[in-house]
Amino acid sequence: MIVLALLATWQGAVAAGGVKPTVLPSPQRIVEQGWLARGIIWANTVPTLQETFLGFAVSLTLAWVLAVAIDFSPWLRRALMPLLVASQTIPIIAIAPLMIIWFGFGLMPKIMVIALVTFFPVTVGLIDGFNLTDRDAGNLLRSMGANRWKQFVYVRLPSALPSFFTALRIGIAYAVTGAIFAEYIGAREGLGIYMATMKNSFRTDLVLAAVAVTAFLSVGLFLLTYAAERLIIPWHSKERRNRHV
Amino acid sequence: MSETTAAAPRVEVRAITKSFELGHGQSRPVINKVDFSAQQGEFLAIIGPSGCGKSTLFNIMAGLEKPRDGEILVDGRPVTGEREHFAYMPQKDLLFPWRTILQNTALGLEVRGGSKKTARASAASLFPAFGLSGFENSHPFELSGGMRQRAALLRTVVQARDVLLLDEPFGALDSLTRTDMQAWLQDVWSHNSWTAVLITHDIREAIYLADRVVVLSPRPASVRLNLPIDLPRPRQLSMMASARFAHYELQLLETLHRPGNPVPDGIG
User: Fold this and answer.
1) What is the pLDDT of residue A245?
2) Contact (CB<8Å) B90/A140
């Protein structure tokens, strides 16, 4: 409803004000022109999606390895946490062009940018999730005779999964943006470089059409994480619903 | 081997002393030379003011913490720091939402490393006695508070350890449910030969359930009184109104509130 009202206002304002489409095209024009260019937009969407999935897969692997290692070793926690935080202070806008110089226009720099922007929230979410485990639950398991590994498998890991899925949602939202950004800096194909090219030829309408596609992608992936959550930890949503009764 | 005689109590706590290190070479004494013992099949209750170190005492018995001094013996054999003799039921039920009730109750056996199937079969065999039949595949959040505590107790006894440690098992329940649970516990206990040590704040609960009540002082905890409760079994709720019950209650109350050790500073 809100979206429709905003679009209607936008459409009305553009029509009444006589704004040039190169400055601000009407929503109607964006849809029309976007639809005409659907072939080329789709051809550029596929590589962006591939990069997002690959980059996010790398990021998730890295996050799990780091978080589990940190959970098992206080020494690693002290050694790695400052590095993790420092990794987030790297200005990606400055580093991304350098990555193109180092690794070329291929997949590598995209995957690195996506991993760099997404692994931090996921790692921190996981580490916090492990630490959310009830202390007494650890004691209970110890009294049953569980070693550190069994405590992890039986309690810490399942305790962390709800936080993991929250972190996953934050990460996936950044992942698409990260892919677009990396392409924008330099790529052969993808929505990012498509936007850059269209902007340079004053096709504001097509830039915005590509933006709309990006938004749909992000929302789609976001909803996908809910589906995965339902599938992997069905007890979590049941418990939440039960608490509200 | 001379210690392992028929007369050795099932469990003996001998001169246990513990203090917490505060750093800078300072330490705060928590437990001061606590002694008590329980015979096979005996139900022992421990009462003491909040923060007196009762839970620390349980952690030491369960082998989770090391005492500074003293020993824990089971059947006359020192077992300090060993974990396989005591089954521990904490204050919170700690039933995990990702496991069904059956899976939760079988947890102790599974952790010990038997097959899942045997573990779950032995837990399942206790469900009728614990009034949990039909809830094997429910999740903890679908059960009432009383049922959750019964499930937690089932998880504790199914481990078939030498001694049960019950840390305020009914503390979080409303008083009606609590009375029901006390009656139920004394009933299942009378049909089994468990040796149990119960921590409680509730004097009436202690008298109603226990064969003997140990009263601890404020921190650092020491034993003030070790009082045998001579009431016939099975205990009836009506006994709570008897003159002898009232006499025990008064005696415990006075011992508990007698000034002596300094009152602990809050945290516990």
Assistant:
1) 53
2) yes
